[in-house]
Design a protein that fits this description.
Elements: E1 8-10, E2 13-15, E3 22-26, E4 33-38, H1 42-59, H2 64-80, H3 82-93, H4 97-121, E5 125-127, E6 133-138, E7 141-145, H5 151-165, E8 168-172, H6 178-190, E9 198-200, H7 205-214, E10 220-224, H8 227-237, E11 243-247, E12 253-256, H9 262-274, E13 286-290, H10 294-307, H11 326-341, E14 345-348, E15 366-369, H12 376-379, E16 386-392, H13 395-403, E17 410-414, H14 418-427, E18 432-435, E19 453-454, H15 459-464, E20 467-472
Parallel strand pairs: 7-8, 7-10, 8-9, 10-11, 12-13, 12-17, 13-16, 15-16, 17-18
Antiparallel strand pairs: 1-2, 3-4, 5-6, 6-20, 11-19, 14-15
Helix pairs in contact: 1-7, 2-4, 2-5, 3-4, 3-6, 4-5, 7-8, 9-10
The structure holds NADPH dihydro-nicotinamide-adenine-dinucleotide phosphate (NDP).
């Protein structure tokens, strides 16, 4: 595995980068170096773009059946290599192995099943009522930039629709998670993907990411990560008028009404917030609680957070792992301190590193009460195990606080009244509303309103983002 960390995958082969820049790859639980990654530069992007543009000529002409056969082979390989993916992800970014297997690696299979179903049913040619014919065609060469927090989930959500629609692509994964990215590249190779259809260039955002976004032979950029980096991609893509789809941050509200099953819903809400050590863009990080059940909800939240164990990602179990990197640990600790300084009440946790962990970027689950929505910890995406709790008086007040954020990725809603659930969901400005613990299902669209991005990933809408529409007018 360490050997291929020195290589990019271009034109169907593992090749040596032109740049000689490198970066250490570290295990966040042990802080030990586990590899050295060779970083690319604009010249490597150029080689990959040429390979992808050349491959597009023939791959765009393949039939839907050809592409279904390719994806079905990849599906079998994804099932066979699931455990290897889970171990790679756990080692490189610290997801505990049980969760890494059941959620992180499982996304390679789940999203692929969702895309296959969508591809089989999609109408690629239709006759409009005016007699014109409408065709859906692949957009071209796609540049794909993915983060470290759900590495295979994000890669699958971008690479699979490209392969499904007849596009070719160049992936730049986060340089913090190259083990799973390389393994996935090998799986795509083993599935028999034609050379140049899928390419992988490692490197950092400002160099490789920017070179992709600016490249004249690339027609579309799909980016997941911070709003700051998404804005940079958009700016870089302007001169070549690329389509840009963005999946950015969130500060998702979770509205808890007194008529819900309080014990279950508050406990599950805390667990959902701390899942993946709080490093999920759609995590329910702002718990808005109706005043009538506020004190009881605080007790449940505190007790739940304190019952969560921290532990070694290599061990089976439902403990939570470390943050992915020391940079993230420093960021999250500073934001917790900011919460204390701005006057929020610390219920449990805090900025100190846990004394019982000599190594690893661990932080205890932290819960703040009596938070006001204008505090930094209620406005900024923290991306760590930190929950803020805000009281509300009534439905209108809850909706006003929920929507008072530049983000709009997800929202969560706990109520025993089905009519209220629909009424409130309709007024929440978010791409998804999870009601009474309803989970995301593969094949459904995922994406945000406002500064959480644009476009949708997954299933049929996820395919459409990678397609152009052509109209035939007959004389
Ligand atoms: P970034 O947005 O910087 O990183 C995500 C990806 O974008 C990486 O592959 C990164 O490469 C790349 N990137 C960075 N700058 C550019 C650029 N100018 N052009 C093109 N690509 C670029 O996130 P961080 O890892 O620094 O995390 C910072 C914060 O971002 C987190 O605390 C969290 O709030 C948010 N975030 C949100 C995610 C989400 O799923 N919505 C995922 C990850 C982070 P490189 O690593 O080399 O910079």
């Amino acid at each position: 595995m360490l050997e291929t960390l020195g290589m990019h995958y271009v034109g169907g082969r593992w090749i040596t980068p032109l740049s000689d820049a490198t970066m250490p790859v570290t295990n966040p639980a042990s802080e030990a170096q586990i590899g050295t990654l060779a970083m690319g530069d604009a010249r490597d992007v150029d080689r990959a773009a040429k390979a992808a543009a050349e491959a597009f000529e023939s791959y765009a002409q393949t039939s839907r059946d050809d592409r279904i056969a390719l994806l079905e082979t990849l599906l079998q390989i994804s099932r066979d290599r699931l455990e290897d993916l889970a171990k790679a992800i756990s080692t490189e970014m610290g997801a505990p192995i049980t969760m890494s297997r059941e959620a992180q690696a499982d996304a390679a299979v789940g999203h692929l099943e969702g895309f296959l179903e969508a591809l089989k049913s999609q109408t690629l040619r239709e006759t409009l009522s005016n007699g014109d014919i409408l065709l859906r065609e692949p957009i071209g060469v796609c540049g794909l930039i993915t983060p470290w927090n759900w590495p295979i989930n994000q890669i699958a959500l971008k690479v699979l629709p490209a392969l499904a629609t007849g596009c070719t692509c160049i992936l730049k994964p986060s340089e913090y998670t190259p083990l799973s990215a390389n393994l996935y590249a090998q799986m795509i190779h083993d599935a028999g993907t034609p050379p140049g259809v899928f390419n992988l260039v490692h490197g950092d955002g400002p160099i490789v990411g920017a070179a992709l976004s600016r490249h004249p032979d690339i027609q579309m950029m799909s980016f997941t990560g911070s709003t700051r980096a998404g804005q940079a991609v958009t700016r870089d893509a302007v001169d070549t008028v690329k389509r840009v789809t963005l999946e950015l941050g969130g500060k998702s509200p979770n509205l808890v009404f007194a008529d819900c099953d309080l014990e279950t819903q508050v406990r599950d809400s805390v667990l959902e917030c701390m899942y993946n050590t709080g490093q999920s863009c759609d995590a329910p990080t702002r718990l808005l609680v109706e005043r009538a059940c506020y004190d009881r909800a605080l007790d449940i939240a505190k007790h739940t957070a304190e019952s969560l164990a921290l532990g070694d990602p290599a061990q089976e179990g439902d403990h939570i792992g470390p943050l992915y990197d020391e940079i993230q640990l420093t960021r999250v600790r500073a934001l917790i301190q900011k919460g204390i300084d701005e006057g929020a009440r610390l219920l449990t946790g805090g900025p100190d590193r846990p004394a019982d962990f000599q190594k690893g970027w661990y932080l205890r689950p932290t819960v703040f009460a009596d938070v006001s929505n204008d505090m930094t910890i209620a406005q900024q995406e923290i991306f760590g195990p930190v929950l803020v709790i805000i009281p509300f008086e009534d439905e209108d007040h809850a909706i006003q606080i929920a929507n008072d954020t530049p983000y709009g990725l997800a929202a969560y809603l706990q109520t025993g009244d089905p009519e209220r659930a629909e009424r409130v969901a309709a007024r929440l400005r978010a791409g998804a509303v999870h009601i009474n613990g309803g989970a995301f299902n593969y094949g459904s669209p995922f994406g945000g309103y406002k500064q959480s991005g644009n476009g949708r990933e997954g299933g049929l809408l996820g395919l459409e983002d990678y397609q152009e529409v052509k109209t035939l007018h007959f004389g």
